[in-house]
Amino acid sequence: MREPSPTRLALLAFARSGTGMSGAIVLAALIVLATIGHSIAPQNPYDLKSLDIMDAQLPPGSASMDGMRFLLGTDTLGRDLFSAILYGLRTSLLVGVTSTVVAVAIGTTLGLIAGWAGGFVEGLIMRIVDLQLSLPAILVALVLISLTGPGTSNVIVALILVQWAVYARTIRSVVLVERQRDYVVAATGLSLPRARVLFRHVLPNCLAPLIVLATVAIAGAITLEATLSFLGIGLPVTQPSLGLLIANGFAYLMSGAYWISIFPGVVLFAVVMSINLVGDTLRDVLNPRLQR
Amino acid sequence: MLSRRDTLLLAAAILAPLPVAAQAARRLRMGVALAPNSIDPHYHNTGQNNSALRHVFDTLCNEMGLEEVEPCLAESWKMLDATTWQFDLRKGVTFTDGTPFTADDVIFTFERVPTVPNSPGLYTPFVKPVVKLQAKDPHTLIMTTAAPYPTLPREVAWVQILSRKIHTGATTDDFNSLKVAIGTGPYKITKYVPGDEVQFVRNDAYWGRKQPWETVQLKAVANDSTRLGALLAGDLDLMFRVGTPDLPRVQNDPKVEVSLSPSLEIVYLFPDSTRDVSPNMTDKAGKPLEKNPLRDVRVRRALSMSIDRQAIVDRVMQKAGAPANQIAAPTMEGFNKSLPPIPYDPVAARKLLAEAGYPDGWKMKINGPVGFIANDDKILQAVGSFFSRVGVETEVESVSPAVYFGKATAREYCVFMTSYTGPVAIGDLKALIVTKDPKTGDGPFNRHLYSNKQLDDLVYQAQATLDPVERVRLTGEAMKVGMDDAALIPLVQTMGSVATRKGVVKYNSVPIGWGWAMLAEPLS
Amino acid sequence: MSDDVPTLELRDLHTDFDTRAGVLRAVDGVTLSVGRGEVLGLVGESGSGKSVTGFSIIGLIDPPGRVSSGSIKFQGRELVGLPEPELRRLRGRHIAMIFQDPMMTLNPVLRIDTQMTETIQAHERVSTAEARRRSRDALGQVGIPSPEERLSAYPHQFSGGMRQRVAIAIALLHNPALIIADEPTTALDVTIQAQILAVVQKLASERGTSLLWITHDLSVVAGLADRIAVMYAGRIVESGSVDAVLDHPMHHYTRGLIGSVPSRNQRGHKLVQIPGMTPSPLNRPAGCAFRTRCPAADSACEVEPELIVPVPGRELRCFHPAPDALVAA
Amino acid sequence: MSLIVFVSVYAIGDPVEILVSPQATIKEIEQTRVALGLDQPLWWQYLLFLGHALQGDLGRSFIFHQPALSLVFSRFGATLELALSALLLSTMLGIALGLVAALRVGDWVGRTIMAASIAGLSLPTFWVGTLLVMFFGIWLGWLPAIGRGEVATFLGITSSLFTRDGLAHVILPASTLALGNTALIIRLTRSGAVEALQSDYVRFARAKGLSPTRIVGVHVLKSVLIPLTTIVGLEFGGLVAFSVVTETIYAWPGMGKLIVDSIAVLDRPVIVAYLMMVALLFVVINLVVDLLYRALDPRVGPHT
Predict the structure, then answer these.
(1) Which of A143, B25, D177, D238 would be D8's cystine partner, CB 3.0–4.6 Å?
(2) 10-residue mean pLDDT series, chain A (292 residues)
(3) Mind listing the domains of chain B with CATH numbers?
(4) Residue B36: CB partners within 8 Å, gap ≥ 6?
(5) Which numeric CATH code is attached to A6-45+71-290?
(6) Poorest-pLDDT segment among A75-84, B31-40, B161-170, B492-501
(7) Rounded to an integer, what distance in angstroms lies between the CA atom of residue C137 and that of residue C116?
(8) CB contact under 8 A, B311 and A146
C-alpha cells in the first residue's frame, strides 16, 4: 500500500475535524454569497440612483415606496440592508484577505531574509520595520487617500503597509531560533542552495506561528478597515463594507434601529469566526510536531 | 427662533443680578467637541477659543448672532458722523488682579491684535476697519473708520479686551502658562490642558451679574456618543452637539433635557459655473465633457430643484435642521425674507435640463468632507441620490477635511459641499460669492471664483449704507441676485443642540452657538 | 518487603487508544515481572507496544489512551486505579523513567539545576542548597566532569550523551526501586551508547535497582539484561533468560530479530530480514499476529496461541516453535 | 523619517485651509501662511526644520503655539499609563486564560475561551468602547465614563494610577485597549502551551513526579513566554501608537488623541514630534524586548 502524501494526510485530518469543517463550510458559503451576491441582491446599494431617502430606517420586512420588500430593513439613506450586506461582504473579504495575503508574503520574505542574512541586511530591514511600526495606520491611510482619493485599493495598500512589518519581525525571530537547529545545519552542510534551505526547510517550520498570526490578522484587517472607516478615512462612504455598515448603524443601536448595525455585525462575526476556525484547524493539522 | 424681544430679555437675564438665595456653591461641567487651543485671546480666531476665553475676557459688545449686538464693556455707542463712533465704557470695572479698566486698555488691545506672532488665524479682520482710536476720557472712546462702516459694533464684538498695564509684552506662551491669563470676565482660569480641558473659578469681583457657578469645567470629548454618555453617566452637567442618531432617544430620556436651536450655519453646494471645462464630469460613456454644463444657469437651477431638502432634514438630520433657500439664516441681519423656498420638483428639473441640452444628463462626481458638518457624508449621498434620479448620474466622494479643503481650493472638484457660519448675511456674501480680490481681501472662500458685477455692486453699496433698513434691503437684493443665478446651491440650515441634566441645569442657547457657563442656569 | 515479592508484576495488561477509526489496542494482555535488582530487556520492533507498556506502568498514558484492564503491581501494590496524586508520589521517587531522545527530554529553557532540584523538592522537603548539593553529586556519579559548573548550564550547552547522563542522574536522584528506560541509547553514538550502558549497569547493580530496559536493539540487552521479553503486536511472544533466548530462540519472530543483527561471523552472507511489516494495531490478523510474516505459519495459527512454558524459566506464544531450539533447551 | 512627514503632510493638504476662521479675508489667510512659514518652498521649510532640530527644537505647534516636543511629552504620561495598564491587564488575563484553554483543550471551557478570543478580535474597538461606556458608565453607573482621574506623585512619578479616583477612571479605557491584545495573547499562549504540553520534556517532568502546578507554571509557562515576549513587546508599541481610538472615545488626554487631532488639522510640528517620540519609544521597547528575549531564551546567542 502506498503511503498517502503529507498534504493528503493533512486534508484528511482536516476533514475529520468537526470544528474545522463547519468553519470551512460557513466560510465557503460566505464566499459563494460574496461572489454571486451582486446578482442575487434585490438592489444595487452602491448605486445612488436606486436609493430613496424616503425609505430610510425602515425595520426588517417593510415595503418600500414602490413596493419592494426590505428583508432586513434599510439604513439611514434608504439602502436595502440585505443587498448592502451582500455587497459589503465582498468588499470586506476582498480587503481583509488581499491585504493580509500580500502583507504576509512581503513580511515573510523580508523576515526570512533578515533572520537568515544577518549583519547589514538584517539591520537595514529591521530598521525599516521599526520605522513602519511607529507610523500610525491613520497617517499612512490619510496620505494614500489624499494622493489617490478614497477607494478600496488604497485601503488595501494602507493595510498592507501597516501589517507587513509585524510578520517580518515575527518570522525573523523564529528564523533566529530555527537556523541554529540541526536540520538547518544539515541542509547547509549538504550545500543546498541558500534559497532552497530557506524556503523549503526553514519556512515550513515558521508556518505554525505564521498561520496563527495570519488568521488573526485577516480578522484584524477587516476590523481595522472598519475603524478607518469609523474615523472617516477608509472606504468610500457610498460603497460600505460590513465594517462601515456597522460603524454607520452603531450609533442608531440605542435609538431602536437595531437592524442597521446588528445584521452586518452578525455576518462580520461569522466571517471572522469561520476564518479563525479554519485557520486554527489548519495550524493543528499542518504542524508536524503536533501529530499523534 | 429668537425675536428681538427675546434678545432683550436674554440680555436682561445675563446682566441682572440673581436672587441671593440661588448663589450657593455650585459647579458646572460642560462637555464640548473641541477645547480651546490657546489662552491668548488674540492668537487663533476659532469658535472654541472665542467661546471658552470669553469666560475670562470681556469684549466691548456681545455678538449673539441676532439682529442686534448687546452691550458689554461698552455700555452704549453711537455714530458721531459717517466714520466716527463713540463708545461709552462701563465704569468701575477692574481686571482680576485689581487693575482698573480704561479706554487706554482698548487702544492697547487694538494695537496688539495684529502683532501676535505665529498666529494661525489673526483677529485683524475685526480691528482693520478702525483707522484711529482715541480716548476722549478714561471711559469714552472715539473710533474712526476709513469709510462708512455701519456694522462696526459687530466687528469689535469679537475682540477680547486686555490691559496695557498687565499685558504689555505678554506672549502667547505667557497666556498659555496662565501667568497673564487675567481679564475682566466673570471667571478666572485655574487650569489649562491643551486640547483637553479648561477649568474656571468664579470671579467674585465681576462687574456684571453674579455667576451662579462656583467652578466651571470645560472638557473636550470629541466623540458625540461618548459625550452624551458622559452626560447620562453624570460626569457632565451639560453638553453641546448631540449626535443625530441619538436625538430621538434622548428626546424621550427622562433624565435629559435636549434643546434644538437654529444656528447660523448654512450648508451649500458650490457648482463650478466659471470654467469652460470642469473636472469629474463625463458623458454617460465615460468621455470627459468638453463643455461644462454647470455654466448654464438652467442646469444649476435644475440641480437645485431636484433636491428634496425637507426629506434631508427629516430623514438624515432627524429634524435637527431646516431647508435653506439662501446663504443666510433667518435670524441674521440681511436675510431676505421675501425669497420663496426652493421647490422640490424633479419633473421641472428634468425639463430644465432638457431645455439646456442635457435631456439624458451626464455623469459626475461631487465631493464633500467627512466629520466637518454633522452628517455631511450622508447629506452628500442624499444629494447624489437626488441628482441621479433626474438623470445626472452622480458619484459621491467624501474625504477628511484635512484633504478636502486644499483640493476644493485647488479647484479639483466640479461641485463640492461645505458650510459657512457668520453673524450677518453680508458677511456670508462677501466671504463666498463676491468677486475674489486680494486688494479688497474679499471672496476668501469663493473657491470657484464666481463673479457677478451686479451682486458685487449691491454688496458694496449695502456695506456703505448707514440706514439699517436700506442696508438690509440692499443686502437682500444682492442675495436674490446670487440665488437667482444659482451661484451657490443652498441646502440646509443646521441646528445647534444642547443636552442638560433635567432639573439640574437650563441652557439659554443663542444662534451663534456660544458654549458659555454664563448662559447656563441652575435649576435646583 | 520480602525478597520474593517482585518489584514489578504485570498481569494481562491491556492499554487501548480510542480513535475515530476504532479502539486501538496497543498493549494486548502483557504479563511479565521484574524481580528486585533484576534487569529485564523488553525487546521489539517499533510499534510493538513496548513503549506504551512502559508508560502504562508509570501512569503516563494520556487520553484518548487508557489502561483498560489487567494489573500492575509495584512492590506488591496495585497501581491500576490508583488516584493521580498517589501515582505522582511514586513517579520520580520510586519509579523513574529515562526517555529515548535526550535532546527532547530536558526543558531547553530551564537550567540543569532547576530541573534537578525540582525533582528532589517534589518529593522531599529539603532546602534548595541541599537539593543542589545532591544534584551535583548525582551529576558526578553519572560521570559528568566539573558538575558544579555544569549545574548552572542550559541543556543546549550539553552534547546528546551528556544530556542523557543528566537524565539518568535525575532518574537516580531518589534511588528508585525501578527504572524504566525507554530506548535511552538509541539516539546516541555507539561509543557514547557504551558509556551510558556502563554507567547504568554500574549504578543499578550497586543500588539493587530493578531495570525495565525497553529497546529494539538486541545487542544492547545482550550485555545488560538478566532476562529478555520479546514483544510483538502488543503481546509478549517469548521470554526467558538472556542466554537462553538469544542462543536458542524458539519464536520465529525472535529468530528473525536475531538474524537481522549484523555480526562478524555472518560477514559475506546476506542479512536475514523479516519479510513484511508490523501490522497496524487497527487490523491485526486474527490468531497469531505474526503468522502473515512467519515461515512456519499454517492454518493452526489462525487461532490465538496461548502462552506456554515449553521449558522451565521460559515462556512462549507459538504453535510451531523452532525445533532445534527446543532440542537445545 | 521627518522628511516623510514633511512630504506626507504637504501631499495631504494645506493646514492653512483648515485653520482659517470664516471671518478671515484673503489677507489674513496669506498672513497665516507667512506666520507659519508655509509660504516658503517645501525644501527650504525642511532645511529650516533640520537646522532647528539639530539644536533640539522641533518647532512649535501650528495650533497650540507650544513647543511641539514638550506638548507631546506632556501627553506622554497619560498614554503610557493607559498602555501599561492595558498591557498588564491583557498579559495577565491572556496568559492565564490561554493556559486554561490549553489544559482544557477540546472541552467546553477551552472552546468558550477560544470563541471569546475570536469575538475579542472581531469586535472593533469603537464598538467595545462605546458599549462599555453605555453599560458600566451609564446603566450601572459604577465607573466614570470619561477622562483621567486625579493624579498623585509617588517616587517622583506623577500618575493617576496612584489614586483611587485615577484607577477608577483607567479601568474602562484600559479594558477597551486591552481587548484585542488579550485575545491575541490567549491564542498565542494556547498554541504554544498545547505544543509544550505534548513535548517530551513535559512528559519527563511528569515522570519526575512534579505537580501539575509546577509543570504548567514553570515548564510550560517559560516556553510560552519566549515567543510571547516579542509579540507583547510589539503590541506594547502598538498600544501606545494606536491608542488613538480609545483615547478619542474616552476623552483620555494622551498622545493618541493629540495625534489624531493634529493629523486632522495637519499640525505638522506636532506630527513630527510625535513620530520622533514614538520612534524613540520603539527603539527603547525593542531594546528591552531583545534583552528580555535573551534573558528568557538561553538558546539565542549573544551575537544574534
Answers:
(1) A143
(2) 60 73 86 84 77 76 72 80 88 88 89 80 83 70 66 82 83 77 69 69 71 74 76 74 80 73 82 79 64 40
(3) 264-495 (3.10.105.10)
(4) B46, B48, B49, B51, B52, B53, B192, B198, B218
(5) 1.10.3720.10
(6) A75-84
(7) 11
(8) no
CB contact under 8 A, C88 and D209: yes
Contacts of C255 (CB under 8 A, 6+ apart): C249, C322
d(CA B134, CA B136): 6
- Which of A132-136, B99-103, B260-264, C170-174 is the least confident region? A132-136
Q: Which of A53, A54, A237 sits opposite B377 (nearest CB)?
A: A237
Is C73's Cβ below 8 Å from some Cβ in D? no
Cis status, amide bond into A209, omega within 30 of 0: no
Instruction: Give yes or no for D51 touching A (CB within 8 A).
Output: no
Q: Which residues contact C219 (CB under 8 A, 6 or more apart)?
A: C261
**Cα D246 to Cα D238: distance, rounded to the nearest angstrom:** 12
DSSP conformational letter for B487: S
Residue C106 has its nearest CB partner, among D201, D218, D297, at D201
Q: Could you tell me where the DSSP H helices lie in B366-410? A: 376-389, 401-409
| Strands B140-145 and B215-220, bridge-based pairing | unpaired
Interchain pair D65, B442: CB under 8 A: no
C-alpha Rg value of chain B to the nearest Å: 24
Q: Residue A109: what residue type?
A: T
Q: Is B308 in Cβ contact with A238 (below 8 Å)?
A: no
How far is C-alpha A204 from the chain's CA centre? 22
3-class secondary structure, B327? coil
Cβ atoms of B380 and B368 closer than 8 Å? yes
Q: Count of CB atoms within 10 A of residue D291's CB?
A: 11
- How far apart are alpha carbons B444 and B434 in whole angstroms? 9
Size of interface A-D (CB pairs under 8 A): 125
Give the domain ranges of chain A.
6-45+71-290
Contact list in C for residue D216 (CB cut-off 8 A) is none
Give the separation between CA D234 and CA A152, rounded to whole angstroms.
28
Considering the entire predicted model, what is its pTM?
0.76
User: What's the confidence (pLDDT) of residue B269?
Assistant: 96
Rounded to two decimals, the ipTM of the complex is 0.73
Q: The C-alpha cell of B195 is what?
A: 486640547
- Convert B389-425 to b/e letters by CB count within 10 Å (16 or more is b): bbbbbbbbbbbbbbbbbbbbbebebbbbbbbbbbbbb
Q: What is the pLDDT of residues B91-146, one digit of tens each?
A: 999 999 999 999 999 999 999 999 988 888 888 888 988 999 999 999 999 999 99
Q: How many angstroms separate the CA atoms of B399 and A144, rounded?
A: 12
Average pLDDT of chain B, as a whole number: 89
Q: Pull the grid cell for residue A22.
A: 463547519
- On whether the CB atoms of residues B143 and B95 are closer than 8 A, the answer is no
- Which position has the higher pLDDT, A266 or B162? B162
| Count of beta carbons in the 10 Å neighbourhood of residue B506 | 16
